[in-house]
From TrEMBL:
Native organism taxonomy: Bacteria, Bacillati, Actinomycetota, Actinomycetes, Micrococcales
Organism: Litorihabitans aurantiacus
UniProt keyword Signal, yes or no: yes
Keyword hit for Repressor: no
Annotated protein name in UniProt: SCP domain-containing protein
Signal sequence segment: 1-31
Domain SCP residues, every copy: 246-347
InterPro entries named in the record: CAP_dom (IPR014044), CAP_sf (IPR035940), LGFP (IPR013207)
PANTHER family for this protein: SCP DOMAIN-CONTAINING PROTEIN (PTHR31157:SF1)
Highest taxon in the source lineage: Bacteria
Length: 372
């Protein structure tokens, strides 16, 4: 073989090899990227394929876009743990290590953290709240919310709680400025505590909706019926009520008993009764407290408080606890071993009858309920 012939043969051989190398990737291979041993991903024609010990799943379309916006597999949502689930032709979701991405006509949004847990506990996308219609909105370091088709989930220091679009309480809360408004974030879910009557506790107040006139048994004096109860209203969550909880637990600790946990729903029930006593100017035990669920016993009282800047809130709360501890029946309720929870209500109003109508004095109406 001459040099020229050998060179032509070598060139032909190299060209053939180069053609082979160029054709193989185009026909059968794609880029693969590894985040950790056993955890990798590769782009596909319409999304991204992720492989992990949980399996291999494709994330495609708008869900892929939202997932990548949250950092992809190494971001806040992590790797997918299931394939996309289509609930209707327009509604679908995909579950990841640390959250879920939902896609619907309202848009594609991630639900993460405490909001995700609360949303799943209420049935997820097919549950009471439905699909998300906004991303999570952070209003403060420890306060955020996310809107859904049929309500809003608020996440704060006390947990994550819902307001439902079908409820009058949600309308009341929205009218008062929502989470950044007068009453703050919810600290419990809405509760139907009696037929036709609902409540929900918030950071700075309690919302009530009462229908069917909130009728109560005939054991209540006629004055009780003077309370307008067919409608919606707010009552305040007061500092004095929290102080009574603290002082009550101090008495229990001094007597070798466990402290009671304040239950916001029980405090709402107690505040409602204090409001009814204040509105009727009548001291009376709530004939329905045992029917409200989880309530074992109740203490009530009224006490005079000075009006205006000279009012001593701590002194008023301490006076109430001293009065109860000085009465054998009320003391027995405070020092009972069975209860694990407490609720307290405190409402201050002028009294036309008690105290002779002294313009310098208001009357505080206090209620304690104990339960489990």
């Amino acid at each position: 073989m001459t040099w020229r012939t050998w060179r032509r043969s070598l060139a032909a051989l190299v060209g053939t090899a180069l053609v082979a190398v160029a054709l193989v990737p185009a026909a059968s291979a794609r880029a693969q990227f590894w985040d950790a041993p056993g955890w990798g991903w590769s782009p596909t024609a319409n999304g991204t394929e992720y492989s992990s010990p949980r399996g291999t799943f494709t994330v495609a379309g708008p869900i892929d876009s939202v997932h990548r916006a949250h950092g992809g597999g190494t971001g806040s949502l992590g790797y997918p743990v299931a394939a996309r689930n289509s609930q209707t032709t327009q509604h679908g979701y995909q579950t990841f290590e640390r959250g879920v991405i939902y896609s619907s006509p309202a848009g594609t949004f991630a639900v993460r953290g405490g909001v995700d847990g609360a949303h799943r506990a209420r049935g997820g996308g097919s549950g009471a709240l439905g699909y998300p219609r906004t991303a999570e909105v952070r209003e403060a370091a420890s306060h955020s919310y996310q809107a859904f088709e049929r309500g809003v989930l608020y996440s704060g220091p006390s947990g994550t709680w819902a307001t439902l679009s079908s409820s009058s309480i949600t309308s009341m809360h929205r009218a008062a400025g929502g989470g950044r408004g007068t009453h703050g974030y919810p600290i419990g879910d809405e509760v139907q505590f009696l037929p036709g009557q609902w409540l929900q506790p918030f950071e700075r107040g309690y919302a009530f909706v009462e229908t069917n006139q909130g009728r109560i048994p005939e054991t209540c004096p006629a004055e009780c019926y003077a309370v307008p109860s067919n409608g919606s209203y707010w009552l305040p969550r007061t500092w004095e009520a929290s102080e009574i909880v603290r002082l009550t637990n101090a008495e229990r600790t001094a007597n070798g008993l466990a402290s009671l946990r304040e239950n916001p729903v029980k405090s709402a029930l107690a505040t409602r009764w204090s409001g009814k006593m204040a509105a009727t100017d009548l001291l009376w035990h709530n004939p329905q407290f045992a029917a409200s669920g989880g309530v074992m016993s109740e203490n009530v009282l009224y006490t005079s408080v000075r009006r205006g800047a000279s009012y001593d809130a701590a002194g008023g709360a301490a006076s109430a606890v001293r009065s109860w501890m000085g009465s054998s029946g009320h003391r027995a309720n405070i020092l009972r071993a069975g209860p694990t929870e407490i609720g307290v209500g405190w409402i201050v109003r002028p009294s036309p009858r008690i105290g002779g109508g002294d313009h310098r004095t208001d009357i505080a109406w206090a209620t304690q309920v104990f339960g489990y």
